[in-house]
Amino acid sequence: MKKKTVSESNRDAWNQALKYHQKARNNSLQIGFKNPKFTTLNRDCDEILINKIKNIGLSVKTIAQMPCNNGRELLSLMQFGVKEAIGFDISDIAISEARELAEISKLNVKFERVDILEIDDKYNSYFDFIYISEGSLQWFPDLNDYFAVVSRLLKKKGKLLIFEIHPFAYFFENGFDIEKGNFEKLTSYFEKSPYNYKDGLDYVGGVEYEAKECYWFMHKISDIINAILQNDIEIQEFDEYNMEMANNDSIKFLDKFPLSYIIVGQKK
Q1: SS3 (DSSP) at 235
Q2: Tens digit of pLDDT for each residue in 141-159?
Q3: How far apart are CA 174 and CA 204, in angstroms?
């Protein structure tokens, strides 16, 4: 399957999904970002993220998020003294909302609608820090391509922070229910073929709908680590947690397993 086919299909699917997300949130973000102290980093698991960010230090730094969805996390990161931030995402509707939130907040944050793999060369060696949040890596069929862009955009000694859903959690994305014990529905850790969310991508309101074709990929932890290392980024920290990030009912019974992780890296 061509990479451009994957990215454009996912673009259409996320444009469709964002309309459901906006309806579920009912302008809560637009209202919230009128307050300079407003943040969306207020889940239990975000306390871990915040501590990592404080240790790294973002004061007077230029940062990016890729992909950034509707910008809510990037705007929240500005409270750590960030000088400038740029968010990149393939969804037209996500970026449109992100720009609206940036205007409301009056923060120095810009947003660009772009295929992440095609970010302009003007951003080469531009960023002190790049943030990758949950549900990002699964949309890229080849992580080497993705982290080549991350490395290209980071300054020398620039920091990378990934706070992601653990691949283990994706075992349960295709209909597995622990109470039913339907283990044939478990996603294979080693399957490279793409999967599709047929019932939609509304993780905010939980509405099921007939979704446009989209493609996500299972990536092993070793895939992720190797792609980072092979693109001149040194891994400084790797921590796994049993904290759930994906709002999956099946996962809530499985807190003895790794459900999320953080990687901190630095460009050589």
Answers
A1: strand
A2: 999 999 999 999 999 999 9
A3: 18
CB 112 within 8 A of CB 45: no
Q: Residue 195 has what DSSP assignment?
A: B
Scored b (16 or more CB within 10 A) or e, 142-179 reads ebeebbbbbbbbbeeebbbbbbbbbbbbbbbbeebeee
| 220-259: b (≥16 Cβ within 10 Å) or e | ebebbeebbeebbbeeeeeeebebbbbebebbeebeeebb
Token pair for residue 101?
């939130």
Q: Nearest to residue 191, comparing CAs of 207, 171, 162, 206?
A: 171
Instruction: Give the domains, in start order, of the chain with CATH numbers.
Output: 3-267 (3.40.50.150)
Spatial distance between the Cα atoms of 188 and 111, rounded to a whole number of angstroms:
35
Which amino acid is residue 82, in one-letter code?
A: V
pTM beyond 0.90, yes or no: yes
**What are the tokens at 170?**
């994706």
CB 67 within 8 A of CB 116: yes
Q: How far is the C-alpha of 21 from the C-alpha of 203, rounded, in Å? A: 8
